[in-house]
Specification:
30 helices; Rossmann fold; alpha/beta; 777 residues; single chain; Hypothetical protein af1432; 7-stranded parallel beta sheet
Length: 777
């Protein structure tokens, strides 16, 4: 072996001029990855992945790259190949994917990592040779690293690379190991480059202390509540049921409770007591809508302010979501992270991704579920934190049916293999247990959750607070002008419709009538605007002043408002139940009134095909039963069983399930999407001073973590417009600092600033002309 006068380096110099020895980096990543994976008893294989992941950096080509003399050096394949020699397929996949993303768990894909079959720099087809695999091993061994030792005992993935019946489970196992490696690598690289930015250590949950704070908070709420005695008693009974059930073993649970019974705090109590009993590390709360994430985070921080955490309260309850899902900063568009090893400013993008090192995390369904099926390093980085945790899914009825089978399989595996308890909470519990046989085709554990709330306390019967009037049939339609007249005739009324254009049509008609107390709520309003609307609405309701709120479905899950009358456009049963939950919520009236109407036909009536199919199932049930009792669990059960019977779930997710059976991580990630079309985040001119400051900073400095933190509350989602749409002339792309040379390309970013002030309506929010197709919802 040749002698070198200089050492092998992992990274170039940081801002202090300090380089990092490759051996030191590999040892640090090894130890940190093993520590992360100890939570699911995979520390040996994680340590192997850590020590091997950058084996290719022992090549002369990579060392030249650190001097700026080479580009595009593959330094991951060699480590993957070394892991294969030790029978560690999961470690091999993790090492191969830690820069380029997880690939396929197939023989051909892994055999392609053999370094000596590639050209220099890992590029096949070149005649010139680079450092051989044996030379890499010799150099690592000379550095005291165990590269080609004995085989790994009890490898996580097992020996099979063929299509397997537990494919979802097997792929999740790989992602969890991948997560431990990637997070360890990110943190160690960050430690080297960000020498003046010390990442604070994660706080601990301390569930016993937190539960005492929650109990005290609930007592305070009871004293100040205007809810009826019966509603207060139901909330007490639900809290007691949750605390009692928390003493049982870890596993999968359902929590079925009517709206207005205090479900949010009751399931938090379950999670804290469950964590205390079983020494679980954190609580992850998964919510479908951004509009209620802010509300939930605010409620939780009020609960725990008595812990006297000061500025650490935001670290104890971490709000984490990317408005466009898991794709974004941290995963460059070209699929590589080669710049991470070059300079501190280029590594800054990874700081945009959180790793969930917090006791309580509140996140979106998109962030959580797409991460569970991702192949990207930044998206998977946080997954290892889910081991030994409680994962609470609120409003689970919103889960897309086409994704139900793989999602349930992944969550059952998360519970069984990684000691996480999973809770599905909702007022309208989908009959997912009926899918147990299909789920078992992808995870041996199947789906058989245990209900937390006993039937003996009779919550459904006790929660009757509204009268529902149904249309005679779905052919019995109502013109929009008549709907507007009915709204105008009531002093306080909520009207929920299926589409933004329907809400806009109603608002325009009522605005022309000059009605007092008119409000609108949809995701065309930025979060700050939505919060202000809800504050104003609650104030008017409490004061008995006129209040007419026109809303899309974004109000239906978890938003705490209490109207005497609610109108709901015909749609799925769970949507109507949720709308009814905003009527007489506190039980102060003898009975609230819910009026279901069928709008006049005007082309597209529903957001998508799945929504239409659910509405059609309800239409059939309405014809069969006549008026439906929303408080009867048998009605909800019959509805979901009928819905699952007509939906060919295997066919709906056929491409996704095929990719899963082929163990193709890249194709699975591309096909598992809660939001089918790519979304962009658009900062809107609501608070003009804030908007102007964000616009100026975007033009001068580009995208940064700080900018995103301030922009989120001022942004709305749009589907990415097609290239010929006029809305592009109003969008300023906000380019990541490290890639500003491509500032003319709008496909390198998911963040934009909307430039035309007049297109943000004070009632309707963002209304881009001639671009309605880019509005989400």
């Amino acid at each position: 072996m040749e002698q070198r006068d200089w050492p092998f380096l992992a990274h170039s110099a940081n801002e202090r001029g300090e380089t990092e020895l490759l051996r030191d980096h590999l040892v640090r990543v090894r130890d940190r990855a093993a520590d992360f994976a100890a939570a699911f008893a995979a520390q040996d294989e994680a340590a192997l992945a850590g020590v091997l992941h950058d084996l290719g950096k022992y090549s002369e080509a990579f060392q030249r790259r650190l001097q700026g003399l080479e580009r595009g050096v593959d330094h991951w394949s060699a480590g993957a190949w070394a892991a294969l020699q030790r029978g560690a397929i999961a470690a091999a996949l993790a090492a191969q994917g830690h820069h380029i993303g997880l690939r396929r768990a197939t023989r051909d894909s892994l055999l392609a990592t053999e370094p000596d079959k590639s050209g220099p720099n890992g590029r096949p087809g070149s005649a010139e040779r680079s450092t051989t695999f044996n030379e890499l091993v010799e150099r690592a061994t000379a550095d005291g690293l165990d590269v080609l030792g004995s085989a790994v005992s009890d490898p996580l993935f097992g020996p099979s690379l063929r299509s397997r019946p537990d494919a979802v489970a097997a792929m999740l196992d790989v992602r969890m190991l991948f997560s431990a490696l990637v997070d360890a690598d990110y943190l160690e690289t960050e430690r080297h480059f960000s020498v003046d930015r010390v990442r604070p250590a994660g706080l601990t949950l301390e569930p016993e202390r937190a539960l005492r704070a929650l109990r005290e908070h609930v007592r305070t709420l009871r004293f100040g509540s205007t809810a009826s005695a019966e509603v207060a008693a139901m909330r007490d009974d639900l809290m007691t049921a949750c605390l009692t059930a928390a003493g049982g073993p870890t596993g999968c649970f359902t929590l079925t409770a009517p709206t207005g019974t205090g479900k949010t705090l009751a399931m938090l109590a379950f999670a804290l007591e469950h964590a205390r009993r079983h020494q679980l590390r954190r609580i992850v709360v998964v919510i479908p809508y951004l509009s209620i994430i802010e509300q939930t985070v605010e409620a939780f921080r009020r609960v725990f302010c008595s812990l006297h955490l000061g500025e650490n309260l935001d670290r104890y309850v971490l709000e984490h979501h990317s408005l466009a899902g898991t794709r974004g900063a941290g995963d460059p568009a070209d699929g590589t992270r080669e710049a991470d090893d070059q300079a501190p400013e280029r590594g800054a993008a990874r700081l945009l991704a959180e790793n969930w090192d917090a006791p309580i995390v509140v996140t979106t369904s998109v962030q959580m579920l797409e991460s569970l099926f991702s192949n990207r390093p930044a998206a998977c980085r946080k997954l290892h934190r889910l081991a030994s945790s409680v994962v609470l899914f609120d409003e689970v009825q919103t889960m897309p049916r086409s994704l139900a089978i793989p999602t349930l399989a992944a969550l059952s595996r998360l519970s069984a293999r990684f000691r996480a308890s999973v809770v599905f909470a909702t007022a309208t519990q989908p009959a997912f247990a009926k899918l147990d046989g299909l789920v078992r085709q992808f995870a041996d554990e199947g789906w058989n959750p245990k209900e937390i709330v006993p039937e003996s306390i009779g919550l459904s019967q006790r929660a009757r607070r509204v009268r529902v009037s149904w249309p005679r049939s779905t052919e019995d339609t109502t013109e929009w002008a008549d709907v507007a007249d009915r709204i105008a005739s009531e002093s306080q009324v909520l009207c929920v419709v299926n589409l933004k254009r329907h809400a806009s049509r109603l608002c325009d008609g009522l605005r022309r009538r000059g009605v007092d107390g008119l409000f609108h709520l949809s995701t065309s309003l930025c979060p700050t605007h939505r919060r202000q609307v809800l504050t104003d609405v609650r104030g008017r309701l409490a004061a008995g002043r006129p209040c007419r709120l026109i809303s899309t479905q974004c109000i239906e899950a978890g938003v705490d408002v209490d109207f005497p009358i609610a109108m709901r456009a015909f749609g799925p049963l769970d949507a109507i139940v949720q709308a009814a939950g905003r009527c007489n919520r506190g039980g102060r009236l003898e009975s609230g009134e819910v009026r279901v109407f069928v709008p006049e036909p005007d082309g597209m009536a529903y957001p998508d095909g799945a929504y239409r199919q659910a509405a059609d199932v309800l239409s059939v049930l309405l014809r069969q039963r006549g008026a439906l009792d929303l408080d009867d669990p048998a009605v909800v059960r019959e509805y979901y069983e009928a819905l699952f019977a007509v939906a060919d779930l295997d066919a709906e997710g056929d491409e996704l399930l095929g990719a899963i059976r082929e163990l193709d991580f890249e194709r699975v990630a591309a096909r598992y999407r809660l939001i089918r079309e790519g979304a962009i985040n658009v900062v809107v001119p609501y608070e003009l001073d804030v908007w102007k400051a964000l616009r100026d900073e975007a033009e001068q400095l580009g995208l940064s973590r700080s900018w995103i933190g301030r922009a989120r509350s001022q942004a709305v989602n749009l589907f990415r417009p097609r290239g010929d749409k006029p809305v592009w002339s109003h969008l300023l792309p906000v380019i990541p600092t490290s890639r500003r040379r491509g500032a003319g390309r709008d496909d390198v970013t998911e963040w934009f600033v909307y430039l035309e002030e007049s297109h943000y309506d004070p009632l309707l929010g963002l209304t881009p002309p001639e671009s309605s197709e880019c509005l989400i919802g």
